């Protein structure tokens, strides 16, 4: 039996249904935090590098120093991710989201009022710590409160919507070019305080995860949440009753306690762990880290040096990425996760190879037309990146994890991804400064390797609830063949090895 065949007291079009409209609103509140966090880290830092006032205040950073400015955002996220898991398991999914928003707001305020480089770096570290907590709980909450019909799209849109924040940051830095003095770069950070502040206030009204409520023996509260948002308050709805039974069965199967060691105890969990780690590393190791954080030096390498040109290209990339990421997010069920990963991988491999070749030609011959040709190929490359590696990693990592390991897995995703990204950004700045376009060859190899990883490890999950997805990884143990039976006994069925039968 599948959820798609069950009668359900909701309208087929979510925007015409009050319960589903609230479901989408709660998703919007959860993902809005990521918009603010990622905006500060990617598009905002890229735009700031094009501002003369920022460059002067921060002593024209390049190489190792610029890498430190990018990496300092990530390091506090590593311990914060495990704190987020503890809070999410002990006090509910909402708690680290609310606490994380408050901390991010404080960090943004420190950034905007920084009187020294040290204060600005502390502010970035504070933002990273708050984000590390919240980014563990928000994807889990979306997976666990979303109507099963909407879950894949909402979960995929979660990370895609950070491009809204990237667009805002790009245009704020563009506007900052026309503001005199330090407020040209302080203004975007000051405006950014509004986002986490809003989510902090609204976060108190988010529903708690029904899975968490059942785990903590509050089944009536869980049933109430499911009925309110998945059936407009009708408790006896067949879909709601099916969901409750699925949740009870899954939690009973998982047991009462879980630890990080559970990831290495079974073949299914080991496979999940490898997928989670490859997803979190790949998120910023597909060559996008060079473009996301160092667009300004990349463009200068091919002859684009005017601040207004760099900030407008940054804004254009954000708009382009948003369109493609959202289109892919809404197609995850129709196209499937594996197909999107493959289309994305082959497209990135080819376009990144072209970027490398054009950059090499410009470096050797200095023909501006060759350098400018890199810009449209950057858009093509990022389009292929955005159709899979923007919407899928967080979504796929959280949906393949069982409830007891979901926030633990996302904590590992955040911590290892943060560490890998911090190292990556530190190395990127140094390598770009030292060897220029030749550094792109490393990422061509990484993209090719990931095509193999996806083919071997990543299972297709479309059309399934999060409880059903677990069955793809947790296969039943082979049983012992009864005496006298010919053939191989597999999961209760005899597969004959006798050609005469």
UniProtKB/TrEMBL annotation:
<keyword id="KW-0813">Transport</keyword>
<feature type="transmembrane region" description="Helical">
    <location>
        <begin position="273"/>
        <end position="295"/>
    </location>
</feature>
<dbReference type="InterPro" id="IPR003663">
    <property type="entry name" value="Sugar/inositol_transpt"/>
</dbReference>
<comment type="similarity">
    <text>Belongs to the major facilitator superfamily. Sugar transporter (TC 2.A.1.1) family.</text>
</comment>
<keyword id="KW-0812">Transmembrane</keyword>
<keyword id="KW-0472">Membrane</keyword>
<feature type="transmembrane region" description="Helical">
    <location>
        <begin position="439"/>
        <end position="458"/>
    </location>
</feature>
<dbReference type="InterPro" id="IPR005828">
    <property type="entry name" value="MFS_sugar_transport-like"/>
</dbReference>
<feature type="transmembrane region" description="Helical">
    <location>
        <begin position="154"/>
        <end position="179"/>
    </location>
</feature>
<protein>
    <recommendedName>
        <fullName>Major facilitator superfamily (MFS) profile domain-containing protein</fullName>
    </recommendedName>
</protein>
<feature type="transmembrane region" description="Helical">
    <location>
        <begin position="369"/>
        <end position="388"/>
    </location>
</feature>
<dbReference type="InterPro" id="IPR050360">
    <property type="entry name" value="MFS_Sugar_Transporters"/>
</dbReference>
<feature type="transmembrane region" description="Helical">
    <location>
        <begin position="409"/>
        <end position="427"/>
    </location>
</feature>
<feature type="transmembrane region" description="Helical">
    <location>
        <begin position="310"/>
        <end position="328"/>
    </location>
</feature>
<feature type="domain" description="Major facilitator superfamily (MFS) profile">
    <location>
        <begin position="1"/>
        <end position="462"/>
    </location>
</feature>
<feature type="transmembrane region" description="Helical">
    <location>
        <begin position="185"/>
        <end position="207"/>
    </location>
</feature>
<feature type="transmembrane region" description="Helical">
    <location>
        <begin position="95"/>
        <end position="114"/>
    </location>
</feature>
<dbReference type="GO" id="GO:0005351">
    <property type="term" value="F:carbohydrate:proton symporter activity"/>
</dbReference>
<dbReference type="InterPro" id="IPR005829">
    <property type="entry name" value="Sugar_transporter_CS"/>
</dbReference>
<dbReference type="InterPro" id="IPR020846">
    <property type="entry name" value="MFS_dom"/>
</dbReference>
<keyword id="KW-1133">Transmembrane helix</keyword>
<feature type="transmembrane region" description="Helical">
    <location>
        <begin position="120"/>
        <end position="142"/>
    </location>
</feature>
<feature type="transmembrane region" description="Helical">
    <location>
        <begin position="66"/>
        <end position="88"/>
    </location>
</feature>
<dbReference type="GO" id="GO:0016020">
    <property type="term" value="C:membrane"/>
</dbReference>
<feature type="transmembrane region" description="Helical">
    <location>
        <begin position="340"/>
        <end position="363"/>
    </location>
</feature>
<dbReference type="Pfam" id="PF00083">
    <property type="entry name" value="Sugar_tr"/>
</dbReference>
<dbReference type="InterPro" id="IPR036259">
    <property type="entry name" value="MFS_trans_sf"/>
</dbReference>
């Amino acid at each position: 039996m599948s959820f798609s065949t069950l009668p359900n007291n909701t309208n087929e079009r979510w925007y015409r249904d009050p319960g589903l409209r609230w479901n989408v609103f709660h998703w919007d509140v959860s993902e809005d935090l990521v918009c603010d966090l990622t905006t500060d880290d990617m598009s905002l830092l890229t735009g700031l590098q094009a501002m003369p006032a920022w460059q002067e205040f921060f002593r024209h950073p390049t190489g190792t120093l610029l890498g430190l400015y990018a990496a300092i955002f990530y390091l506090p996220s590593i311990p914060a991710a495990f704190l987020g898991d503890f809070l999410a398991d002990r006090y509910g999914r909402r708690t680290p989201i609310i606490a994380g928003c408050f901390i991010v707001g404080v960090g943004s305020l420190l950034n905007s009022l920084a009187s020294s480089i040290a204060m600005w770096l502390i502010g970035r570290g504070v933002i990273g710590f708050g984000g590390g907590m919240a980014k563990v709980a928000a994807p889990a909450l979306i997976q666990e409160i979303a109507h099963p019909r909407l879950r894949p799209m909402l979960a995929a849109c979660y990370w895609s919507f950070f491009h809204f924040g990237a667009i805002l940051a790009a245009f704020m830095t563009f506007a900052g070019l026309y503001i005199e003095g330090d407020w040209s770069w302080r203004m975007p950070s000051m405006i950014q305080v509004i986002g986490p502040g809003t989510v902090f206030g609204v976060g108190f009204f988010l529903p708690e995860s029904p899975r968490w409520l059942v785990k903590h023996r509050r089944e009536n509260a869980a049933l109430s949440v499911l009925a309110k948002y998945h059936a407009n308050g009708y408790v006896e709805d067949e879909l709601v009753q099916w969901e409750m039974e699925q949740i009870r069965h899954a939690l009973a199967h998982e047991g009462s306690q879980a630890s990080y060691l559970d990831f290495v105890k079974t073949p299914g969990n080991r496979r999940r762990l490898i997928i989670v780690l490859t997803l979190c590393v790949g998120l910023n190791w597909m060559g996008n880290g060079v473009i996301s954080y160092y667009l300004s030096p990349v463009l200068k390498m091919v002859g684009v040096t005017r601040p207004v040109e760099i900030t407008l290209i940054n804004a254009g990339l954000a708009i382009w990425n948003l369109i493609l990421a959202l289109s892919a997010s809404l197609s995850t069920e129709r196209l499937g996760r594996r197909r999107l990963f493959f289309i994305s991988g082959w497209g990135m491999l080819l376009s990144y190879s072209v970027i490398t070749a054009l950059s090499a030609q410009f470096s050797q011959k200095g023909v501006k037309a060759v350098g400018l040709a890199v810009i449209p190929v950057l858009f093509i490359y990022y389009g292929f990146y955005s159709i899979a590696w923007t919407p899928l990693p967080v979504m796929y990592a959280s949906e393949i994890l069982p409830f007891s390991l979901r926030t633990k897995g996302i904590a590992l995703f955040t911590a290892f991804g943060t560490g890998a990204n911090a190292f990556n950004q530190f190395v990127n700045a140094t390598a770009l400064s030292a060897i220029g376009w030749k550094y792109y060859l490393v990422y061509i190899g990484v993209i090719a390797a990931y095509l193999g990883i996806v083919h071997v490890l990543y299972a297709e999950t479309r059309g399934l609830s999060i409880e059903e997805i677990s069955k793809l990884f947790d296969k039943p143990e082979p049983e012992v063949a009864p005496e006298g039976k010919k053939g191989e006994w597999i999961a209760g069925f005899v597969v004959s090895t006798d050609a005469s039968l």
